[in-house]
Design goal:
mainly beta; Thrombin, subunit H; 8-stranded mixed β-sheet; 7-stranded antiparallel β-sheet; globular; hydrolase; Trypsin_dom; serine protease; Trypsin-like cysteine/serine peptidase domain-containing protein; Ser/Thr_Proteases_Immune/Dev
């Protein structure tokens, strides 16, 4: 689902409920030039909800169901300068989406992430650094959860993939880019059902002069959705069990116990 200023493509978002979308804070805010010294006030202002529309139901930007936004809720501790901490926002639609096979919520993934796990990023942003134009159709790219040490070498203060940010990529020319912001990074269940891992936030290369997207050994940074699940529930009033998903992990011991039980039954 993409977010537009007027009808001009701007960012991506994810449906978590018929009336609620999840996106990146930087998609719907404007950084202030300054705040009073010593002030705890945020260095951003939230844009007016009527500035944007969202479109769902088609992978082509010129088609789909357009909806207006009733309310924008930005995380109050979003750091609009530097590290982009807490880069997350909720969008409440003016009227609920009509859900279908093509328009349906994605549940938030509450499982642990480990290095090398396969995830997928989707969006309608730039496909090369040589153009400013976004894609006119929805694209996706398969990515691995990046090595923690590689991410820590590039991203100041990065913890690991189960903290507030998820770091993915590292392969040349396989990345998200401008226009993909706010869109989903998701995990696929064995039955191909997607579960939301995070929202596209920003990217970094290993060097100051690295390309802004797709750099060799560069990474994409995604706001970790499950880390902010309590905030999402508090602000939206949605049920955490309804909007999230935790995979069932079967240990070797549990598997042996189940096999032994099956032998006794048969």
């Amino acid at each position: 689902m993409y977010l537009a200023e007027g009808r001009s493509q701007h960012c991506g978002s994810s449906i978590i409920d018929a009336s609620w979308l999840l996106t990146a804070a930087h998609c719907v805010t404007e950084t202030l030039d300054s705040v009073p010294t010593g002030s705890d006030s945020p260095r951003f202002t939230t844009q007016a909800a009527d500035k944007y529309v969202v479109s769902a139901g088609n992978v082509i930007t010129t088609q789909g169901d357009y909806k207006t936004i009733q309310k924008i809720i930005v995380h109050t501790k979003y750091n609009s300068t530097g590290s982009a901490d807490n880069d997350i926002a909720l969008l409440q639609l003016s009227s609920p989406l009509v859900l279908s096979d093509n328009v349906k919520p994605i549940r938030i993934y509450r499982g642990n992430l480990t290095e090398g796990d396969a995830v997928v990023a989707a969006g309608m942003g730039r496909t090369t650094v040589a153009t400013d134009d976004g894609s006119t159709t929805l694209k996706q790219v398969n990515l691995p959860i990046a090595k923690t040490t590689d991410c820590q070498n590039i991203i100041p203060g990065y913890k690991d993939s189960n903290g507030p940010q998820v770091c993915a990529g590292g392969q040349e020319n396989r990345d998200t880019c401008s226009g993909d912001s706010g869109g989903p990074l998701y995990w696929l269940h064995s039955d191909k059902t997607p579960a939301l891992v995070g929202c596209t936030s920003y990217g970094m290369g290993p060097k100051d002069d690295s390309p802004i997207c797709g750099a060799k050994q560069g990474v994409g940074v995604y706001t970790h959705a499950s880390y902010f699940l309590d905030w999402i529930v508090q602000e939206s009033g949605l049920n955490s069990q309804t909007i999230s998903f935790e995979p069932v992990v079967t240990t070797g011991k549990q598997l042996v116990q189940r096999l032994n039980l099956a032998k006794r039954l048969f």
